[in-house]
Write a structure and sequence with these properties.
This protein has 107 residues and is α+β, with helices and mostly antiparallel strands. It has one domain (3-84): Alpha-Beta Plaits, CATH 3.30.70.20. Helix content is 20%, strand content 11%. It has helices at residues 16-20, 67-78, 92-95; strands at residues 3-5, 26-28, 33-35, 55-57. The strands form 2 sheets. It has a two-stranded antiparallel sheet. It has a two-stranded antiparallel sheet with strand order 2-3. The longest helix is centred in the last third of the chain and has 12 residues, at 67-78. The radius of gyration is 12 Å and the shape is globular. The termini are far apart. Bound molecules: iron/sulfur cluster and FE3-S4 cluster. Iron/sulfur cluster binds next to loops.
Length: 107
């Protein structure tokens, strides 16, 4: 199994999650983070850390977020690793919880 970053991370990118990951399997894009499913050890630590509640265990994903399994796997191979917390994106608080953010995903 793996944990998966879902839509509500987009345009927020709080990065609290990367601080707790023992295997450094988060990868960073312009306005979204993903988890490398081949490296995640299912430790569960990141899930409660995300202020946007964007991280789910693969088998607990909301149905409308299932396409993020493939998206995390795909983008983890393209994006560099992130291991240190940084400031959230500008207006992260305003974007937290907004629907339809997938259209703003920058690759
Ligand atoms: Fe990292 Fe653990 Fe989260 Fe997997 S579940 S991404 S190993 S913190
Ligand atoms: Fe994204 Fe939440 Fe991490 S918003 S960067 S998954 S803390």
């Amino acid at each position: 199994m793996t944990f998966v970053v879902t839509e509500n991370c987009i345009k927020c990118k709080f990065t609290d999650c990367v601080d707790v990951c023992p295997v450094d399997c988060f990868h960073e894009g312009p306005n979204f983070l993903v988890i490398n499913p081949d490296e995640c050890i299912d430790c569960t630590l990141c899930e409660p850390e995300c202020p946007a509640e964007a991280i789910f265990a693969e088998d607990e994903l909301p149905q409308d977020q299932e396409h993020f399994i493939a998206l995390n796997a795909e983008l983890a191979t393209a994006w560099p690793t992130i291991t240190e917390v940084k400031d959230p994106l500008e207006d992260a608080e305003e974007w937290n919880g907004k629907a339809g953010k997938i259209e703003f995903l920058e690759k």
